[in-house]
Amino acid sequence: MVVLGIAIALIMGRFDAVVLHQPDPAFLSIPFYDMVAFGTCVGLAISWRKKPELHRRLLFIATCALLDAPFGRVLYIFNHALFYPLLDGVILLGVARDLIVNRNIHKVYRVALPLMILLQGITIYLWRGSPAWWLKFCQNLLA
């Protein structure tokens, strides 16, 4: 899934530039982050499959990590600029479940959620800030 996701991001980046004449190479930071977040969570979940408390939460977070695309397509939610906060809100439902049922926030959420928020901020910066080195990297990938 991760390899296919990156390949599709590159193919669609070329399609947007060549066919639609809407080049935005810096946008590649979004699908690249999605694949890294998803792949990391699934990989950890597989390695800890005999520990159901870790496994279940990691698979939940991995699934939620892919929600930015559907949230980004809902245009009436502030011009689709809130896809990461909405994604994090769904993960917070898992945190709320832990608080209600276990009266404690599981360590997976305590580690993963702040790390995801930090990496999401970097991803948005690469997309919207478009530093020169990132643009050059993305243009080379799409060439």
Explain what you see:
The protein has one domain (2-17, 25-133). The chain has seven helices and no strands. The protein has helices at residues 2-18, 29-47, 52-65, 68-72, 83-102, 107-129, 132-142. Helix 1 (2-18) runs antiparallel to helix 2 (29-47) and helix 2 (29-47) runs antiparallel to helix 3 (52-65). The longest helix has 23 residues, at 107-129. It is elongated, with a radius of gyration of 17 Å. The mean pLDDT is 92.
Task: Please give a quick description of this structure.
With 143 residues, the protein is mainly α. The chain is built from seven helices and no strands.
Question: What labels describe this entry?
Answer:
143 residues; single chain; 76% helix
Low-confidence parts lasting 5 or more residues at pLDDT below 50?
Answer: none
Instruction: Give the structural class.
Output: mainly alpha
Radius of gyration: 17 Å
Q: Sketch the major β-sheet.
A: none
Number of helices: 7
**Kindly state the mean pLDDT as a whole number?**
92
The helix content is: over 70%
Count of the domains: 1
Q: What's the total count of β strands?
A: 0
Beta content comes to: under 5%
The first-to-last residue Cα distance is 23 Å
What is the 3D form? elongated
Order of helices and strands: HHHHHHH
